[in-house]
Amino acid sequence: MFYDYLCKGKSLYLSTQCLLITISFPDMDIVDKLNKEFLTQPFCKNEQLPEELNEYKRIAYNYARIENSIAVLSDMHTNISYIYYGGTAETLGIARKGDNQNLESIWEKEVFKYIHPDDLAEKYVQELRFYHFLKQIPHKKRADYFLMSKLRMRDPSGKYIPILHRMFYVATHSNDSMWLALCLYNLSVDPTMSCRVINSTNGQIIELEKQDCSRLLSDREKTILQLIDMGKTSHEIARELFISKNTVSRHRQNILEKLQVKNSIEACRIAKELKLLF
């Protein structure tokens, strides 16, 4: 359910997917797309580790207790979220400090309804970019990185106040599937802060917005997608490019996989957002 970038750094060559989607919550079609991205990963059935899960639940609880965070631990294998409310929740009128709840969803909807709609849409986009960014990082190092961004959330008076949002993927199965995600919401002292990924071990800052997408698709794939956008069928594309229809079909499938979309209409829209089509 969201987007692709190619990033070059001194020690990184990363393909980070960034499907730019306009989202207004609740939009069940978009939520379904996101669920397919996160919840249909090939989890290892024998790696549902209760001790490790309990350890991260304690960590989330302590963030709420010590930092006054709203701490949300999402289990993408079981589609359950564990929410711990600190003082931030009480300030926003969401819950009392010290409260907690479990939800049968990876989405903390009770929190989302306080987020400004524009910021919620951007939150989805950035989280999916971050997800695909981490897919290119060795899984043992993924917990070193976190996504940091600003949100506006509504307080009991109806005023939107700045909130610092941080997201970590804290546990991964041995087959590379992301298992546990931790989201933290805190009152922010810097409302001008931009969205970024930070490596907590060395302070490296990565601006996902500035990554180069131009090499995401090959020249041939761009040509075929351009012809698709013009309304041409696979048969017409094959005849125009002097290739077989099967070759066109293979390219079309590769395009969908690289852009993480389900059909050609979405592929064309996403490619335009990424400046791959004009």
TrEMBL record:
Highest taxon above the source species: Bacteria
Record keywords: DNA-binding, Transcription, Transcription regulation
Ranges for domain HTH luxR-type: 210-275
PANTHER family, alphabetized: DNA-BINDING TRANSCRIPTIONAL ACTIVATOR DEVR_DOSR
The keyword S-adenosyl-L-methionine is annotated on this UniProt entry: no
Gene Ontology MF: a single term: DNA binding
Entry protein name: Helix-turn-helix transcriptional regulator
Record has Transcription regulation as a keyword: yes
Pfam families: GerE
Classification lineage: Bacteria, Pseudomonadati, Bacteroidota, Bacteroidia, Bacteroidales
InterPro entries cross-referenced by the UniProt entry: Sig_transdc_resp-reg_C-effctor, Tscrpt_reg_LuxR_C, WH-like_DNA-bd_sf
GO biological process terms on file: regulation of DNA-templated transcription
